[in-house]
Write a sequence for this structure.
């Protein structure tokens, strides 16, 4: 697995319709009141990985509330702290050889990540990209090249990312791909050669895949589609002649396919699911084979192409019954594995699994202070929208309470072009522990359900997408679960927009709302988009609306222009350094409501961006939310 895969894990999730009788639901005992901070404390350990030789383990753990890197020898109990950051958590890391760690960190949430190297022998840390206002990404860690990596940076132009070959010893960089202005991604072959580029043709609103046989050639387009079509290359075949990719060309759901890069033609379809998209494929660097592809129905599933991978997961599932399992790291030989367990009621634990001996060793719990027995079940549900779409989601009910006339927190996800999934969610568990039912829904436009469901959300912010949320509230009321006078709405990012839209456009539904880094004015959102998002803006205009061509629409769906309709109390939280949803989004909403005498509690953190990463800020926000909801739902 290369560094770009390590740092950009993607999951695709879908919830199957599950019907169950609330009348026969076993209540059990009510859970004790769990301290709020226990839900939002930094984990005891995070991101455990094996060194390539399997001798050492690296992980992140808190030091004075900031996640730092530690290394220890496998089989020993003492660890050595190898970083000492105090301003902000490390954003992610990976091994580069057996004696060096590479990590990313930004400044106060600005998302301008720097790349750092830690020499484990000397203890020295070096900022490899010490450039102000520049964002770095990892293209390929070049596992077989001791002191070099391929990185992307927008140093030359703020709006595009070029590729550089970075020497980790000298710090020297050589540009190897100069972005012509429309490249948005790159893919190397198994020899570390950049053979593929992904581009956005903004003028025609097209996706383009470009290919070259060797690095001496110019890139040439091989696949050009409309932006609604998706071809997502994963990696090359073992001989570097074919491509494995997810594609929805000629179909509604993404399938795993083989593409001939010389012609751009699909030559074989390897796996498709009739109801959901595939997402994420596995590759063995040792055996040089495709191992699996993922898809999600009620939970994550895998289709295997490789006997060892199939047998590996079967063995782990037998050893760890009742938990979901993911393999987060292995040694270079692929005979030692870091295994992570999780469920809806626990963050889980790390294990070390020896394939040769079959021995499974439990390493550490992530959050041992949380008792799994005190957590609530997250149950898949579905309901029908007013225009006939099936909306899938999750309902979490407080333990020990009859599911009747409960106070409810509706929690639409952010994005909006992502989706909610099953698993441990600190926010949901806190709310359930405080006696609230929590409804999460994958409204139209959410990913994972195919192209048609995604397209059904185009230009539907504040309209049919919001109707899907409202219909979830009505469904809960009709089921008798929700007390219609005690329903709150809480969300972050697009979910924060949905909070403001819900309070403005359906004020009768909600007793109060909590907006966390949410959009209030789509005109100003567009004006403050980071420059490197500009290649995506033509697509954004198609999905949301154009500030000039669709001015009337955007004004109609921007909550700030309808503040006079909001009657319910509101809590707003915002990071001052947020590059995605500028602080002005919250400022203008607070001002508009204050002018009308609406109660607004406003929490701003100067050292945060798009969401609060620092532990003390998380504590303050969720404590404010707990008090706020108690005041309007009890």
């Amino acid at each position: 697995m290369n560094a770009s895969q390590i740092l950009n894990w993607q999951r695709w999730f879908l919830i199957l319709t599950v019907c169950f009788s609330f009348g026969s639901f076993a209540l059990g005992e009510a859970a004790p009141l769990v301290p709020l901070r226990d839900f939002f404390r930094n984990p005891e350990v995070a991101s455990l990985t094996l060194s390539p030789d399997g001798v050492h383990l690296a992980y992140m753990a808190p030091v004075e509330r900031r996640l730092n890197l530690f290394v220890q020898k496998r089989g020993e109990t003492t660890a050595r702290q190898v970083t000492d950051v105090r301003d902000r958590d490390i954003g992610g890391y990976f091994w580069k050889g057996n004696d060096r760690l590479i990590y990313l960190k930004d400044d106060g949430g600005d998302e301008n990540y720097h790349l750092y190297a830690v020499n484990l022998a000397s203890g020295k840390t070096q900022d490899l990209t010490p450039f102000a206002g520049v964002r770095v990404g990892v293209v390929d860690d070049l596992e077989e090249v001791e002191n070099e990596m391929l990185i992307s940076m927008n140093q030359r132009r703020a709006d595009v990312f070029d590729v550089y070959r970075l020497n980790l010893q000298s710090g020297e960089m050589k540009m190897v791909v100069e972005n012509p202005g429309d490249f948005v991604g790159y893919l190397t072959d198994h020899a570390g050669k950049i053979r593929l580029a992904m581009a956005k043709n903004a003028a025609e609103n097209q996706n383009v895949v470009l290919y070259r046989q060797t690095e001496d050639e110019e890139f040439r387009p091989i696949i050009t589609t409309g932006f609604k079509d998706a071809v997502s290359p994963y990696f090359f075949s073992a001989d570097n002649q074919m491509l494995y990719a997810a594609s929805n060309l000629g179909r509604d759901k993404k399938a795993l396919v083989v593409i001939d890069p010389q012609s751009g033609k699909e030559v074989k379809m390897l796996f498709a699911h009739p109801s959901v998209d595939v997402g994420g494929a596995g590759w063995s660097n040792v055996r040089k084979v495709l191992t699996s592809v993922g898809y999600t129905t009620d939970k994550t599933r895998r289709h295997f192409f490789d006997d060892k991978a199939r047998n590996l997961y079967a063995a782990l599932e037998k050893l760890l019954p009742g938990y979901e399992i993911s393999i987060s790291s292995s040694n270079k030989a692929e005979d030692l594995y870091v295994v992570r367990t999780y469920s809806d009621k626990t963050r889980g634990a790390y294990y070390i699994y020896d394939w040769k001996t079959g021995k499974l060793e439990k390493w550490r719990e992530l959050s041992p202070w949380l008792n799994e027995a005190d957590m609530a079940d997250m149950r898949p549900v579905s309901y029908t929208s007013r225009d006939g779409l099936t909306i899938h989601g999750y309902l979490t009910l407080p333990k020990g309470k009859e599911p009747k006339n409960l106070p409810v927190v509706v929690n639409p996800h952010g994005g909006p072009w992502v989706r909610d999934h099953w698993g441990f969610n600190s926010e949901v568990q806190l709310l359930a522990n405080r006696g609230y039912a929590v409804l999460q829904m994958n409204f139209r436009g959410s990913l994972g359900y195919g192209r048609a469901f995604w397209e059904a959300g185009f230009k539907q912010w504040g309209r049919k997408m919001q109707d899907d949320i409202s219909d979830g509230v009505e469904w809960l009321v009709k089921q008798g679960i929700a007390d219609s006078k005690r329903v709150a709405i809480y969300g972050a990012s697009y979910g924060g927009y949905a909070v403001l839209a819900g309070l403005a456009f359906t004020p009768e539904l909600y007793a109060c709302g909590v907006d966390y880094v949410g959009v209030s004015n789509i005109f100003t959102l567009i004006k403050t988009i980071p420059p490197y998002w500009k290649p995506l803006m033509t697509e954004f205009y198609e999905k949301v609306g154009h500030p000039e061509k669709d001015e009337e629409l955007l004004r109609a769906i921007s909550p700030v222009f309808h503040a006079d309709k909001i009657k319910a109390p509101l809590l707003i939280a915002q990071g001052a350094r947020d590059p995605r949803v500028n602080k002005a989004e919250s400022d203008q909403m607070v001002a508009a409501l204050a002018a009308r005498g609406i109660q607004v509690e406003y929490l701003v953190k100067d050292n945060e961006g798009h969401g609060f990463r620092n532990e003390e800020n998380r504590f303050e926000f969720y404590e404010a939310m707990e008090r706020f909801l108690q005041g309007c739902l009890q």
Observations:
- The domain at 376-564+576-586+606-611 is CATH 3.40.50.1820 (Rossmann fold).
